[in-house]
Amino acid sequence: MSKRTVLVVAHTGRRPARVSARQVIERLADAGIAVRVLDGEAEELACPGVDVVPSIAAAAEDTEVVIVLGGDGTLLRASEIARPAGAPLLGVNLGHVGFLAEAEMEDLDETVDRIVSRAYDIEERMTVDVVVRLNGTTLTRTWALNEATIEKASRERLLEVVAEVDGRPLSRWGCDGVICATPTGSTAYAFSAGGPIVWPEVEALLMVPISAHALFAKPMVVSPRSTLAVELLPQTPGGVLWCDGRRRFDLPPGARVEVVRGERPVRLARLHGLDATGAPFTDRLVAKFDLPVQGWRGRRAPS
Fold it and tell me: Where is NAD(+) bound in this sequence (predicted)?
């Protein structure tokens, strides 16, 4: 039987993340599990006995799980490594909201125990595949877990775009941008722009205009089989495509951005037995946004 292996990714710019990562590595090693760390983080973590690997997709190959210590940004970075390998991500939140994280720092020891005992399930999250074209020529291909956002490149002028759904024109907007998001991304940038919150198990794509000067500029939820497209008008200034706020591509005037459901999901590990985790998504919303629920009495038993 091959040895169990875990990849640990940390936001090494934060001392709590470094301390927590060392704690995780030590506990995993004590359980006889091999640990990998990324070459760009190894010096800061300074843990003997770990396998230092390049920060590429191969780092997660044949790993049981990728433990991520940081905020959602760190988890999104780790997803670029884990997704090609099909390795599940388990986030320990050291940031602010941390919607993608499965555990909080105070649950760290018990979280590692759940990994050691394999007390977790795997949940798949939709992604989007993105193609940028210009006059029929493909300029780039990329993907996103949260969202692909077409934004104006300069602050002075609006971006003039035409939105399209399933090959049919929908509307023309003068706007700051357009967000094409997944349900996972509905609590990220799309939420900040006024989009709806979509439960993760709902399969759908979202299109959310940003500060559009138009009467019809509401957020839309469409079929996961749909193709969303945003075309920059030739006379508009160039724009910028951002994927998950990490991967940036310049968009020339006339560029066309097409967004479809991704062929490859991102896998998340969901733990058993922690009060703070494995909760229904409704409970996560209440906890993350500190929503008022006082007065709720629940469903009454039948008389």
Answer: 72-73, 77, 146-147, 157, 176, 187-192
Domain assignment present for residue 95? The answer is: yes
> What's the total number of domains in the chain?
2
Residues annotated within the binding site are 72-73, 77, 146-147, 157, 176, 187-192
In 81-227, which ranges are E strands?
A: 89-93, 103-104, 120-125, 128-134, 137-144, 147-152, 159-165, 168-175, 177-181, 205-210, 220-222
Asked whether residue 303 is assigned to any structural domain, the reply reads: no
Assessment of whether the complete model's pTM goes beyond 0.90: yes
Dist. CA 123–CA 73, nearest whole Å:
19
Quick check: is 161 in a domain? yes
Is 275 noted as a catalytic residue in this protein? no
Catalytic residue among 30, 51, 72, 250: 72
pLDDT tens digits for 181-238?
999 999 999 999 999 999 999 999 999 999 998 889 999 999 999 999 999 999 988 9
Same domain, 151 and 39: no
